[in-house]
Design a protein that fits this description.
The complex is a heterodimer of chains A (about 400) and B (about 120). Chain A has 12 helices and 2 strands. By secondary structure, chain A is mostly helical. In chain A, helix 5 packs antiparallel against helix 10. Chain A is elongated and about 130 Å long. Chain A starts with a helix and ends with a helix. With about 120 residues, chain B is mainly alpha-helical. Chain B has a single domain, classed as Orthogonal Bundle (Arc Repressor Mutant, subunit A). In chain B, about 70% of the residues lie in helices and about 10% in strands. A 3-stranded antiparallel β-sheet of chain B has the order 1-3-2. In chain B, strand 2 and strand 3 form a beta hairpin. The longest helix of chain B is centred in the first third of the chain and has 27 residues. Chain B is globular and about 55 Å long. The chains are: A mainly alpha (about 400), B mainly alpha (about 120). The interface between A and B is medium-sized, with 31 and 27 residues.
């Protein structure tokens, strides 16, 4: 890209040179036809029309104009943002918090859910060399019959070994209160969960009869069947999705806030926009300039958001229960980066578009006459800001009610 | 800049098809720089077609981008170095196709403008 720009710069110099050569040739000709030097130069100039315009329309033919324009916009935009550091800091901070929270939660969801699903689909991969080897546990020699995948955590992530349960019928009392002995099984192909529950409940009296004394009928009455996936991530999954939605709302509110800030700021820039329009900038051109500025804000917000996300994720990992499935495998990867970039871009457009559209709708003579500073409080500005405020309050309500 | 730019673009729009052809045709007689081109078009049209330079240079650069003409910087004894344009092989082909299109259009227009003459011919 640098090369392209460098080439473009050189080409521009050459174009000016070409045009000037044209001018001097025309001037020379006029001189030879007997005009005074001044007249000749004027005639040549007249002939050529506006040098700058000729050069500009010629440059249009080169293509890549959008790139040069965008860079110009970005340079100008960063200058404008530096000019009002207070506004920039607040806007970037607001966005960074919104984006950072989203990124942190997303990487959590991504790590805990999406990845677990991918691994879940993997075969029970085991190392054939380990199987069959003896291992001594509590002075009992046992044989390894299989290796579980690293993300198999049952009943908790602390469980590392599973041994067959050997019950001594003479020592029933020893097992009293040992508690956690769920039934584990594989569903035969075509068997639904509902049927599995029904069969399980039908078999319960048999299990109750295995006790040496009579057990109440209510024992295990509420037994049910849940899938392994639900068992390992189930409740966390729902919670995380709700969290992701809530954080998304927070980001939307942040966007509305920044849009409001931008609107207020652009009201004070009315005169600048009017001058640009008077110099011939079209509505789309002005709109693009403003969108580039909001894009710059969003990119800064995204960068700081990444930082917040790293900190936030560390905090979340410390706060979440240690047996949250696959918490250890939660990291920032390219998916998270892509997510953040997409979110930053989206927010840039979201909070930038309305103010840009509004600000680029310029009533030239009015803005120039009234001097700009106070001319912006027109009806449509008020309406837009009211709409933003209403949307913000509505979102906040949803959030509060949802949290309750 | 918008207003004069649009003016130029409108003018190019009207002239574009024919201006491209005129440039290609003029270059057929040999490589030329921009000023010589505009002068040749003016002279050969009996001072009727004055090519606006705001149309000429965009047209030249556009044709160059399409590969129909090629440009080269050459030093001139007059002083400034000049950008000399020449017709390329594909440019020659383009000229032939534009010429036939032009002839079809002029015949069609002539048919409308002089219906009596056409009837007397048949």
């Amino acid at each position: 890209m640098r090369l392209t720009l460098w080439r473009r710069k050189r080409r521009n110099e050459e174009l000016i040179e070409e045009i000037q050569a044209h001018l001097s040739l025309a001037e020379r000709e006029e001189l030879e036809s007997g005009q005074s030097r001044r007249e000749a130069r004027l005639a040549a100039r007249y002939e050529f029309g506006n040098v700058a315009v000729a050069a500009e329309v010629t440059r249009d033919m080169w293509g890549w104009r959008w790139l040069a324009d965008t860079l110009q916009d970005a340079r100008y935009g960063s200058r404008m943002l530096r000019k009002s550091p207070g506004f920039t800091a607040i806007a970037v901070l607001t966005l960074a918090l919104g984006i950072g929270a989203n990124t942190a939660i997303f990487s959590l969801v991504n790590g805990v859910l999406l990845r677990s699903h991918a691994f879940w689909q993997k075969e029970f991969g085991s190392d054939p060399n380990v199987i069959g080897q003896p291992v001594t546990l509590e002075r009992v020699s046992r044989q390894i019959v299989g290796v579980m995948p690293f993300d198999f955590k049952f009943p908790s992530s602390k469980t590392q070994l599973w041994v067959p349960l050997h019950l001594d019928p003479r020592a029933v009392g020893a097992y009293w209160g040992a508690g956690f002995m769920p039934l584990i099984g594989r569903l035969r192909d075509g068997v639904t969960m509902a049927r599995a529950v029904a069969e399980l409940r039908a078999a319960l009296p048999q299990f109750r009869a295995m006790f040496p004394w009579t057990m109440p009928d209510l024992l295990w009455a509420g037994s049910s069947v849940i899938s392994l996936q639900e068992q390992t991530t189930g409740t966390v999954q729902t919670k995380l999705f709700i969290l992701l939605g809530a954080i998304g709302l927070v980001l939307a509110i942040a966007c509305a806030n920044v849009a409001n800030l931008l609107l207020a700021r652009e009201a004070t820039r009315q005169r600048e926009m009017a001058v640009r329009a008077a110099l011939g900038a079209g509505r789309w051109r002005i709109c693009r300039q403003l969108l580039t500025e909001s894009g710059l804000l969003a990119i800064c917000g995204g960068a700081f958001g990444m930082l917040f996300a790293v900190i936030g994720l560390r905090w979340l990992k410390a706060v979440l229960p240690a047996d949250t499935p696959r918490l250890g495998s939660v990291t920032m990867d390219w998916r998270v980066l892509a997510f953040t970039a997409a979110i930053a871009l989206l927010t840039g457009v979201m909070f930038g578009l309305a103010p840009a559209l509004y600000a680029s709708k310029i009533e030239l003579t009015e803005s120039l006459k009234t001097g700009g500073q106070h001319s912006a409080t027109t009806g449509s500005s008020h309406r837009l800001r009211s709409a933003l405020a209403i949307a913000e309050i509505a979102l906040a309500f949803v959030l509060v009610i949802g949290a309750g | 800049m918008r207003a004069p730019k649009e003016r130029y673009q409108n003018r190019t729009e009207i002239l574009q098809g024919t201006l491209d052809m005129l440039i290609l045709q003029t270059l057929q007689w040999g490589p030329r720089h921009g000023y010589a081109l505009s002068k040749a078009i003016r002279t050969n049209s009996g001072e009727i077609l004055k090519v606006d330079t705001g149309s000429l240079y965009p047209a030249l650069h556009r044709l160059e981008r399409k590969g129909w003409i090629a440009a080269e910087w050459k030093a001139s004894e007059l002083g400034p170095r000049l950008r000399i344009y020449r017709l390329t092989k594909t440019g020659k082909k383009q000229l032939a196709s534009e010429r036939s299109r032009w002839e079809r259009v002029t015949t069609a227009i002539a048919g409308i403008m002089n219906p009596a003459k056409k009837e007397s011919e048949t």
